[in-house]
Structure formats: C-alpha cells, structure tokens
Amino acid sequence: MVFSASRRRHNSYTLAPLILISVNLLLFLTFFVWPAIIGLAYSFTSYTGVGDAPWVGLENYQELIGDADFYAALLRTLIYTACVVPLMFVMSLGIAYLLVSPYAKGKTVARVIFFLPWLISPIIAGVIWRWLFGENFGLVNFVITELGGDPVSWQSNGDLSLMIVVIVATWAGTAFNMLLFIAALKNVPVSYYEAADLDGANAWQKFRKITLPAIAPTSFIVMLLSTLHAMKEYTYFVAVNDGGPGTENNLIVQYIYETGFKRAQIGYASAASFVLLLILVVVAVLQLIASRRKGS
Amino acid sequence: MAVSRSRTGDLPKKISSSAIMWLLAVLYGFPLLWFVVSSFKPGGELFSYPLTFWPKNPTLEGYTDAWTSFDFPGYLVNTMIVAIAATLLTVMVSAACGYALAKYGNWWLKIFAGCILATTMLPTETILAPLFLVVRNLGLYNSLSGVVVPAVITATGTFMFRQFFVTVPNDLLEAARIDGSSELSTFFRIMLPLSRPIILTLAIFSFQWRWNEYLWPLIILNEPSQFTLQIGIAGIVGANNVNWSILISASVLSMVPLVAIYLVFQKYVMNADINAGLKD
Amino acid sequence: MGISASARKGWLAASVVGALVLGACSSGSSGDGDPKSITFWFSTSAQDQGYTDLAKEFEAKEGIKVEIVNVPYDGYQDKLSQAAQANALPDTASVPSLDPLWVNQLQDLASIANNEANKINKNLVTADGDKVLSIPSDVTAAGLYINKSLFEKAGVSYPTDPAQTWTWTDFLAAATKVREATNAKYDLVYDNSAARIRGWIYTHGGTGFQLGADGKFAAPDAATVTALSEFAKINDDKVMPKSVWTSGQDPNALFKSGQVVAYYSGVWQVADFADSITDFEWASVPAPAQPTHATDINLGGKMVAFNNGDKAEAAKKWIDFVFQPANYTKLAQTNGYLPIETGLTLTYPFEKKAAQDAFALYIKEMELADPISSSGQANQTKLLLAKQKVDDALIKTELAKFINGEQDVQKTVDAIVTGLNDQIK
Hints:
Chain A is 73% helix and 0% strand. Chain A has helices spanning 2-11, 15-42, 59-65, 68-100, 107-115, 122-133, 139-146, 158-185, 190-198, 203-214, 216-231, 235-241, 252-259, 266-295. Chain B is mostly helical.
C-alpha cells in the first residue's frame, strides 16, 4: 500500500481516471466515433442510400455555403434558441425552488403536474396544443371570439407559431431541468442559510448570494444542454405546426431531414450535419468562455 | 432549506409561495387535464364543436381497446427490461466517468469531456444509418441488448455527475487518500453514496428516455415477443388514420409506471440529507 | 490490493447486468431450416383481423404457422431497408412500397398473379418483364365526403350517381351556399398529401408530374399549373382553412368538428367515420369532374415473398393461399378492402348504411375513372424497375411554400420537378 501510494503521487493518477472513464471511452469509440466516421465519409460523396457512393470531394460543403435556405433555417434556429432557453431556465429554476421550499403547500400533487408534460409524446403534445391554439377550432380562439374579438392566426403567422412552439417546448421540457435543479438545490448546505438568517438577509438576498452561486455548476450545464438541445429541436415544430406556416419554421435539423434524407441526398445531409456539429462546438466553447469569465 | 420554524414572517411567505406555485401548476396542468379527460371520451366527441371539456358519454372503451390492440403486458415487460438494464448501466458508467472528469486534472480528461459533449451534437437521423451498421457488425441486431448498449453513454448523465462532484470539497478526497484508501475504493465507498440525489435523478431521466424511445427499437427488434411499448403505441397511428381515442388512452396507460417510479425516486431525492458530509 | 471489496462488488454488479442483458436477449430469431413457421410483416392501425383469420386456416391446412408482425407505418420503410442490410428480411410481407435495396431478393409471384381462377387485375401487379414482384392486397382511391346533415339543413342537393357528377365550380358553389345557410366555418378541407393533390390535378384536366421518355420527370402541362394556382387560391380561410396545407392541421379532425361542409380524402376514412362520427350524418359523394372524371388510385399493401432459403416455398404458399378467391373474399370483407380480384361478391361488415353506400360508390367511381388516375402508381413502378427511389413528399412542402406566399406557381412547379429529378441518378 505504501508503495502504491508513493507511486501514485509520481504519476499524479493516470490509471484510476483511465479505469473510471474506460467504459464510456469504449462506448464513445464504438457508438459515436465509428458511426460518425461513416457519416463524415458520406459527406464527401453523393451517396443516395442505395448502391455505391461516388466521391465528390468538397462539393456538398461548397453547395451548402451557397444555400440561402440553410442560412434561413439557421437564423430561425438561433431565434428559437434565444427565446426558449432563457424561458425554460427561469421556469424550471423557479418551479424547482418552490418545490424544495418549505413554504409552498400541496407539493406532492404539484410535483406530478410539472413532471407529466415531459412524458407526453410529441404527437400527443401536438394534438393537445392544437386543441388549445388551433386557429380554426382552438379553445383560445373560441374564447376570443366569444368575447367579441377576432380569431388570431396562431398557425399561419410565422412568428406566432414559433412562439407557440416555444411555449410547448418549455411546457414539455421544464420537468427535465427542474429535476436537475432540485438535485442541486438539495445539495446546498443548510448551514449557509442559517448563517444568512442570523445576518437578517431577506429571501431575495439569500437566493442571489447563496443559492445561485451554490448551484452555478448545475446552472451552467442546464444552459449548455438546453442550448444544444434547442439548436437541434424539430420534433415539436413538426408535431404542432409541421414546421409551418410553409417552411418558415423549418429549423436546421428539419431542413437537413427534409432536403437531405427525405430527398435521398445522404451526402448533402451528412455535410450539413457536420457543419451543424461545428456550429454547436463553437456555441459550447463560447458558453464555456462566458462562464469562466463570470466565474473569475 | 428548512429554516427556523417559528418565525413570524412565515405565514405571508407560505401564502405567496403556494399561490405562485399553484398558479404555475394550473398553467402547466390545464393542457394535461384536457389530455386525461379526453381519454374517457368516445371517438365521436373528441373533435366536436362547439368545444366541450367534460365527456358527455364517458367511456372506458379507449382503455380496453388500447389494452387489447396489442400485447400490452408483454410489451410492458420488455420495456421494463430495457429501461432497468439501461438505467443501471447508465448510472454506473456516468458516475464513474463524471467523477473522473471532476476530480482529476489530466489533460486528456478535458479533451474527453469535450468528446462526450460532442455526442449530443449530431442529429439523430445523421447517425442512425451508420450506427445501425455498427450494431449489426457487433451482432447486436434483433436483440434487446442492441437497444440497451448504444444508449448507455450519455452526455447529460456524465455531466450531471461531473458538476455534482465539482461541488464536493477536495478535502474529502485528500482525507481518504491520507487514510490509504485507493482511488477506486474512495469513489465507490465515499463518493458514490454521496451522489445519491444525482443517481436517482439520472435514473428517472434514463427511465424516461428508454421508455419513450421508438425508432431505434423498431429498427433493431424483429420479433413481436421483444417489442417495446412505444412500438405498440405507434402501431395505432396508421398511414392515413389516427385512432385518437385509443392513442390517448394508450399514452395515459404507458405513463403510469413512469409516474410511480418518479414519485418513489423523487421522495428519496427530497429526503436525502447529504449536507452532513459536505459541510466545510 | 488496488480495489476494495465494495468497489469490486460495484463492478461485479455492473458486469453481471451487462452479461445478463447480452446473454438473455441475443438469442435472436429461430434457426433456419424450420419451414413449420414463416413470418409476415404488415402495417395497419386497424385492419388486422382478416390476416389473423386466414393465418389460422392456413396453419390448419398446411401445418405452417404464420407469425404476423404488425409494424407501425412510421419507420416501416426504414426498418425494411435496415433489415435488408442485416440479412433479416421477413419471409413474406405487405409493404407500402418496393425498395431497390431489396427488390432483387423477391420471389416471382407470376404463377399466382396469372392464375386464371384468381381473376387478379393484372394492371395492378408490379412486374419486371415476366417476373411478378408484388400483388397488391387492395386498392385505395381518393374521394369526396360531405357533411350530409349540413346539406340537408341548407336544403341543397348533391349528386349521388358518379355518371352524373358535378364540376368543382358547381360543388364549391353548393358548399358555399351550405356554409352560409348553416353558419358552418369552411366549405372544404383537403388532405395534405402528394397523392391527394394528384386527384385535384387530374380532375382539372391536368396530367400532373409524369415521367418523360428519358426516365426523368418532365415539366407539367399548362392545365396542371392552372390547377395548382386554383388550389392555392381557395386556401383563403373561407373556402378552405389555410392551416391544413401550411401548418399541418389535421383535416380529419376539422371535418369531424361538424363545421366543415366537405372533405376530400379517400376510401380508408370510411371505417373511421363509421366508428367515430356520431354528431352528424356524412356521405360519400361523386368526386367533381372539371372536366375529367378521375381519382387517384393507389395500391394498398403490396404483398411480397422473399427468397429466404428453405422458407421460400412456404412463403409463396402463404401468398398463394391469401389470393385464392374464397380466402381473398374473406380478407377483403373483414379488412374493408377494395378488391383487386374481379367477380367477387363482397358484403362489408359495416352497420352504417353510409359506409356500405360509400364502398359501393368507390367501386363505381373506379370503373368510371380516367386511366390517368393510376399513373402515380405506374410512375413509381417505372422508377423502381430503373432501380430508382423517389419520395414525392416534397410536393407537399413546395405547395405549402406557394400557399404561404413564399414563392409563385412557376417557381413551385420548377422546384417540384427539380426536387424529384435530383433523386434520380
């Protein structure tokens, strides 16, 4: 034991972390790197999904750079992400805070209510929300017209229909981030709050000065994962409004799917996917830098 | 966060906290209520206008049809097997990896952290066909393990543990080292039990992910005896028709086990008293 | 020692779970060389009793069990192409469309298709020269439904005999009259589908998107372009709600609200309507002709038998069994199929008279339909034999852009032709 302990100090622990990550490393190489390399190879070909895949070099990437629809989809994706991530963050942190607070009553029932939307499949979410915000026979327009107003075009107005999807995605995704926050909030030492109480701090001060710094690592990961997730969102757009009206709200993954995979342009779709990967890497690095700067 | 109990300011706090929470609960719950209530409507009432909220002729037909439209109990068992196996493996692997990323400073670990994050960055459709080739080449086609094994690696799980272990004071680790505890033993004996809230939270996540997964199991599994719940439910959605009343009832049914698991696990997360070990 | 006892226990647990999963589940399919059972994949959200019944009779007669697997429609094509890559195709199947990836693994069904006793409509089988690749289980046709209660309330009449049908102009005038008299919301909802829009184009005298002599899609005729412009024009939130074609609103649900005068869809709605429309009376009516009397005729499931070693013979036996007139009659009746065999007397098990009438009407409509009605299907076959796979869903997307005002009709038509041809190598 003494021997191994002294040797460890020299190696500053190589074996232990290697063992700890070994399974993940193996899975990463097998189920991500290997298929990703196949996908990357496709992106340099004009593969259609059948037969051979003729090599075309950088042609797909060049075509992509000149594709105005790609930029339009990217822009729409960024707008969506900028809307949904902050909303989701505030809602899930707020709800998590209320659910662990000793003051709110009826938490068991509320907990289930906030959790359930996350279990509902997108196709069902689509029918539920069209029942509410369908522009023809939806409940909201029904109420508006009963009150003497004009029906609102929740579906055929591009910005409104984007907003509806922001609401649906927040509704459905809150539970996930909420659970992350609950775990983090439960981890904040009670002694910190007790000390603050002695100093006469109010609730908002305690939240700002104790809670937020203590859960910062979780907040960062919630931000990062929500952003990456939002940038790849398309299931709720398809389920609620089919990416509509028209193709106005075709986000980037739906664009890749519709113009690439569905039209047998596997090569082109793969190229677009790797460009998306590159964009997401940049987004992640930017967030990392931002959080570092804030931390220091 | 149970702060001193007998303070005079508690009552207004109780009222305002409860009011805000229940306002949000109503907002979140209203669409759900329509969903659950609709599962008791006969097909003819679902889309009738003017809109009605409560069913005029409540019926359990949707539920009985859903239960008999495919082998519900059999698919449920398969889904359970997949979800339990994947969850155990996911938690184990993510905890080990997240701990390594949090507590060791090797340069290659930082790169690996980036690699793990990269797994979330490709659209599923891009990776689906190549991943299928890999799984086939490994001989996992047409087996439940072909559904489970590729799903074990998750950036979310790994980073949940990483972010948690970052907040665990290094003193604890140093103290264990001084006591002569080996690195892996420290992880299993001291660190893993500390992370119980994360373990349980990730378990809830993993259960939900596997429970609701559809396309991958459909492609990998060939025999109805191995089908999972979502395959059965998707069968209700036809090429041109959707039988909404059966679909909604089947969805409600499929959610019940998840809610049960959530309530049990979440209770432990809420009751976890880990502060003792973490006090500076 | 490097790892403590509890640590080892942890890893042990993990590896046990791993071994359990791998061991318990990788048993795979039963070994070949067992012609006592074959597999049959198909996809349906409702009609499965017909095959289950036939499988029982088949097992009693031949001693071969048919394992029926209902594969959900969403993902079925993917599943088949992946199964082909894993050499795990089923023995027999009813598929939505044939795929060049596995078409060379099909058995020749000519002996079944050409058997005079079966009286199979030979125009409907998919053949490569003399080799018959698939026989459809049924045909489907597009058609018009009306809310009969609204028509009666408004006192507006409608044709019932396909030989004396109305024009789109007459129909829309009638529907508007009904809408205004009954305070309904819309004249018409129209399925958001590339196949259904073919019906619109054909009935307006256009030929739509057809393959040219060079094996590529040609620019459509002027009548098609005009028809598409007309279609966009009636998406005005009065005649038709815009949301169906631009934003994925479900037309079936809108029609069921009882606030829409008519619905253009197809024969598959009959069973659903018979079951789940209880608030009003509905009827199937002759599709308008302006001037062409046409519909879009599509094949239901395509029955195929794969060349799976010693199961091949049993597989073909099962397909043969299904298409024997006595058996096929039962299948068509139970599953509510429009038949592909002639000379059958079918009684469908619907209680509703509207449903019975609808089937009778569809059969008459198909007899009267202009030959162009089945050209969509014919194009797919031509492409398949040229080893091409073309997904025409982009027609929906491009039309949605047009209706939404993102592009004009010429650009829409050009984008459709280019998009279709891009998929042809």
